[in-house]
Amino acid sequence: MMKNIVILTVYVIGQLNYSNEASPPLEKRFTEEDICPISETTLEKVDSCPRNNVTIRERSERKNCAKYEPCQGDPLVYHCVRHENYLVEVCAPKEIIIGFCCAEFIKEVGRVQADYSMPCLECPFHYQSNDAWKYRTCTGNAEHNKTFEEATGKFEEATGKFEEATGKDPNISSGNLLVVYIILPAVLMITSILFVVWKVKRAKYPNQKPPSLS
After folding, report:
1. Which of 7, 31, 76, 168 could lock onto 163 through a cystine, CB 3.0 to 4.6 A?
2. Can you tell me the distance from the alpha carbon of 87 to that of 65, in angstroms, rounded to the nearest whole number?
3. How many CB atoms lie within 10 A of CB 64?
4. Which range of residues forms the domain containing residue 112?
5. What confidence tens digit (pLDDT) does each residue in 152-187 have?
6. Residue 61: helix, strand or coil by DSSP?
7. In angstroms, what is the C-alpha Rg of the chain?
8. 38 and 25 in one domain?
9. Residue where a domain terminates, one of 140, 163, 184
10. How many distinct structural domains can be found in the chain?
């Protein structure tokens, strides 16, 4: 349960940062010296990512990222991750993904980084970016991508109708609506429940440390 709360919190913060143009997003910041332009030349759209150690080895050998020069001293390694709304194979430096979220390839910097708009229950809190293929939440097949895009489109369409019907400022993004009407209430509700449970356990065990909530 605690992991779910952490994931929700990270997602809310990420959405707030993405939806506020004045606030920088949570992604790792790269300087011009960190940019790896060669990574973009290896970018290849795919229908699916490897599903086991055998296929990851076969596809990484076929991609042969070792033939490329390192980027700022960092060797390029095989990745199968999301880029925009589809899956790609790409040779890029390894990064640490932190925050129970998916990884994505950012073409502008030629690197893989955390995507806080895509929370991942099955992902560990931190993992190597080239291990992103292991988590189906992040690397579903092409049909999953299509479904995701359709769902996103329907949500945006519904948001547009809501704004039109209520005369709401159209400059307020759908991300803001999602945070205000769905995510924040859910976080507050879960936090309140946990607080009540903690108080009950505290009263039940007044002279000792109550059992963990997790």
Report:
1. 168
2. 18
3. 11
4. 31-140
5. 555 556 556 655 665 655 444 545 555 555 676 777
6. helix
7. 21
8. no
9. 140
10. 2
